[in-house]
Amino acid sequence: MIAMTAAQVAAATGGRLSPKDLDPATVVTGPVVVDSRQVQPGSLFVALPGEHVDGHDYAGAAVRAGAGLVLAARPLTHDGPDDGGPVPLPAVVVDDVEKALGDLARAVLAQLREAAVEPGGTDLRVIGVTGSVGKTTTKDLLAQLCAAAGPTVAPEKSFNNEIGLPLTVLRADEQTRFLVLEMGASGIGHLQYLTEIASPDVAVVLVVGHAHLGGFGGIEAVARAKAEIVEGLVPGGVAVLNADDPRVIAMAEKAPGPVATFGTTSAADVRAVDLSVDRAGRAAFTLDAGPVPPVEDGPAGERRRADVRLRLVGEHHAHNALAAAAAALAVGIPLEDVAEGLSAADALSPHRMHVVERADGVTVVDDSYNANPDSMRAALRALAVLSGRERRSIAVLGEMMELGPDARAEHEAIGLQVVRLNIDLTVVVGTGAQGIAAGAVREGSWGDEVVMVPDVDAAAELLEQELRPGDVVLVKSSQDAGLWQLGDRLTSGTGVRA
Question: What does pTM read for this prediction?
Answer without folding.
Answer: 0.87
